[in-house]
């Protein structure tokens, strides 16, 4: 395997994690990234004297893959956890605490739901019907809105579930897959007639002391790709940026990639390839040799969004925020869909600059791309107006930044789980090929790293078969038992 050459297309966290495992396993690895920088949606820069992430700012600490990677890089002692995860939701024009007992917005504690005042009296009265309604028919998949709406009423979808899912997918509950976006709830709901009972069972089964929910790094999660790239280089791997892969074709022995502009193409041969780019470019690369996968990838849509980061003097707030932030349901008719008080959520930021409050405002939902077609100054004005209305902010920010993520969030629409299964089945027929990234099994960093592990394992197994004399399909002489 040490002489085998593996090319990883894409230097987001999935591609980098796969490349690191392959390089550490002894393969000669080349990572190709079309943009001038690595990291994908992980990026950090300074604002108001603080390192504040421009993309994902945290990873789930209750999934092991992200923490395992940080540990393997020798950085476990640097992990930081939130000072608070208490958040609110803007409903009926006022900020209200998220009700206790909910799982991704699906309530289980009716008293806490009533106390939160998130729902109208009519919406609240509809929820308990879930306990007595007949079982809701459900096939292989259904939309979030259809299933939860049938059980608990539309207000639960609009004012609780969709805002929480919107923070992850920026999608619409009418189209998002129940199985793909709420897999644990969907699984529990198959064993309970009542959705309330299903969520109660989930909460009762959860560990009493599960530890922190999220984790980050002191200089921002955007530093993680740089740490992984350093480890790849240490293992002998190569990362090339500003290199666009135009074509990927199967050869009799391995794969050939065509790189760069059409007027001056470059070819690169590899024994195996990991495609770790978003669905659309992955579809283009696989179109010739894996058309079944390419067709399915082309059906995965993406949402665009922008993050407006504002740094204020602490004096700008009449009262310092206590929670980590708040969500805004689309039915409220506001353009900001989520606000994070970064300096409150992460104590290490507040300790670094006690007089500065950094705030991140997320703008953009699926199907509302027109919202993002305005200039940066207009988007900043939208964010500042939001904070003035909800928090009474009375000063201008001392620093600001707009980060646009065009087509940044894959939409896990109804049928997504089966679509991914068809993609992987088609890819599996091609020796030495694997896919990884956010388009498949989860948008979070741990999920992306898990997909990278699976892709690296598949490639490693193929290379081992290759070095043993097999062709990757178990058709070599050894696999056939040809020796006497």
TrEMBL record:
Residues 13-459 form the Amine oxidase domain. Coiled coil: none annotated. Its EC number is 1.3.3.15. It is found in: Cytoplasm. It comes from the Bacteria. Its cofactor is FAD. InterPro entries: Amino_oxidase (IPR002937), FAD/NAD-bd_sf (IPR036188), Protoporphyrinogen_oxidase (IPR004572), Zeta_carotene_desat/Oxidored (IPR050464). Keywords: Cytoplasm, FAD, Flavoprotein, Heme biosynthesis, Oxidoreductase. It catalyses: coproporphyrinogen III + 3 O2 = coproporphyrin III + 3 H2O2. Pathway: Porphyrin-containing compound metabolism; protoheme biosynthesis. Pfam families: Amino_oxidase. It is an enzyme of class 1 (oxidoreductase). Involved in coproporphyrin-dependent heme b biosynthesis. Catalyzes the oxidation of coproporphyrinogen III to coproporphyrin III. Belongs to the protoporphyrinogen/coproporphyrinogen oxidase family. Coproporphyrinogen III oxidase subfamily. NCBIfam families: proto_IX_ox. This is Coproporphyrinogen III oxidase. It comes from Actinomadura vinacea. The lineage of its organism: Bacteria, Bacillati, Actinomycetota, Actinomycetes, Streptosporangiales.
């Amino acid at each position: 395997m040490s002489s085998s050459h593996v090319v990883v297309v894409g230097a987001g966290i999935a591609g980098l994690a796969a490349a690191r495992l392959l390089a550490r396993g002894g393969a000669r690895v080349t990572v190709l990234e079309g943009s001038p920088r690595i990291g994908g949606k992980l990026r950090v820069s300074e604002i108001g004297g603080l390192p504040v992430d421009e993309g994902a700012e945290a990873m789930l600490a209750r999934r092991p893959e992200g923490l395992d990677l940080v540990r393997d890089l020798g950085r476990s002692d640097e992990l930081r956890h939130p000072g608070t995860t208490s958040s609110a939701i803007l409903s009926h024009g006022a900020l209200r605490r998220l009700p206790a007992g909910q799982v991704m917005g699906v309530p289980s504690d009716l008293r806490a739901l009533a106390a939160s005042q998130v729902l109208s009296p009519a919406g609240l009265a509809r929820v308990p019907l879930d306990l007595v309604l007949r079982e809701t028919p459900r096939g292989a998949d259904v939309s979030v809105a259809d299933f939860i709406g049938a059980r608990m009423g539309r207000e639960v979808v609009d004012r609780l579930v969709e805002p929480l899912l919107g923070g992850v997918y920026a999608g619409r509950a009418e189209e998002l897959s129940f199985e793909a976006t709420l897999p644990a709830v969907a699984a529990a709901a198959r064993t309970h007639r009542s959705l309330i009972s299903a969520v109660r069972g989930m909460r009762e089964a959860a560990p009493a002391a599960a530890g922190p929910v999220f984790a980050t790094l002191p200089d921002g999660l955007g530093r993680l790709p740089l740490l992984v790239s350093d480890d790849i280089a240490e293992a002998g791997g190569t990362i090339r940026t500003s290199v666009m892969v135009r074509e990927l074709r199967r050869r009799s022995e391995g794969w050939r990639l065509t790189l760069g502009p059409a007027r001056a193409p470059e070819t690169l041969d590899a024994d195996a390839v990991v495609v770790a780019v978003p669905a659309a470019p992955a579809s283009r690369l696989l179109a010739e040799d894996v058309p079944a996968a390419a067709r399915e990838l082309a059906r995965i849509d993406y949402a665009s969004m922008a993050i407006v980061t504002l740094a204020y003097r602490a004096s700008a707030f009449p009262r310092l925020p206590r929670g980590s932030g708040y969500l805004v349901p689309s039915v409220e008719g506001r353009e900001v869909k989520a606000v994070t008080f970064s300096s409150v959520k992460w104590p290490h930021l507040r300790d670094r600059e006690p007089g500065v409050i950094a705030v991140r405002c997320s703008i953009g939902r699926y199907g509302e791309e027109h919202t993002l077609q305005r200039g940066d100054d207009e988007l900043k004005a939208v964010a500042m107006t939001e904070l003035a209305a909800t928090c009474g902010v009375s000063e201008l920010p001392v620093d600001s930044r707009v980060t646009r993520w065009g087509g940044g969030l894959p939409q896990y629409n109804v049928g997504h789980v089966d679509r991914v299964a068809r993609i992987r089945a088609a890819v599996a027929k091609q020796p030495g090929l694997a896919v990884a990234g956010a388009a498949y099994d989860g948008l979070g960093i741990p999920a992306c790293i898990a997909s990278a592990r699976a892709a690296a394992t598949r490639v490693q197994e193929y290379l081992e078969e290759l070095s043993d004399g097999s062709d990757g399909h178990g058709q070599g002489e050894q696999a056939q038992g040809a020796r006497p």
